Amino acid sequence: MSDAIADAKRALRADLRERRQNLSSSARDAAAAGIRSQLDALVERVGARSISCFLSTPTEPGTREFVNAAVARGIRVLLPVTRADGLLDWAVAGDGDDIVEGMFGLPEPVGELLSPMAVNDVDLLVIPAAAVDRTGMRLGWGRGYFDKTIGSMENCPPVYAVIFDSELVDDVPRDLHDQPVTGVVTPTQTLELAPTRR
């Protein structure tokens, strides 16, 4: 990655991080309710019976209500567990799972771990992002876990990034390893931005 791209990514991430930290608790609650509604509708539209999702941190658009409701409806939800080698293991979400602080301070489930290959069986990937541009290019938080996951899948299902409305931008800095997403889910809308790769 060139220094200019790395610097641009760092600057944009810092700005987005600060904006997220300045959101009020009522704005966060409203965003979580909107995300749940949008994700419920997306799962229904795709006809997904098995999905991957993530447990949101306090500053991310909330996904936990959605995950709990999906599990209660009988949808198989795989949650990521970070590994030191840059890959993701997966755990099946259960009702009332224990959550621990994983690598990088991210919330992760406690339970039996499935290999990185487990995600190949899902109908829909729901992933975190710092921002997404209008071509579907995603800016993550710089560790590359989801770029590696998406890039390694032979038959990748639709991939939707969860962001706040203001984080859908005209352009994000990109490098060769960065992977686009099919679309975004925000508290107010679900948009398809790029064709699904098959």
Automatic annotation (TrEMBL):
Cofactor (UniProt): Mg(2+)
Catalytic activity: (6S)-5-formyl-5,6,7,8-tetrahydrofolate + ATP = (6R)-5,10-methenyltetrahydrofolate + ADP + phosphate
Keywords: ATP-binding, Magnesium, Metal-binding, Nucleotide-binding
Record flagged with keyword Coiled coil: no
Annotated Pfam families: 5-FTHF_cyc-lig
EC identifiers of the protein: 6.3.3.2
Name recorded for this polypeptide: 5-formyltetrahydrofolate cyclo-ligase
Protein species of origin: Microbacterium terricola
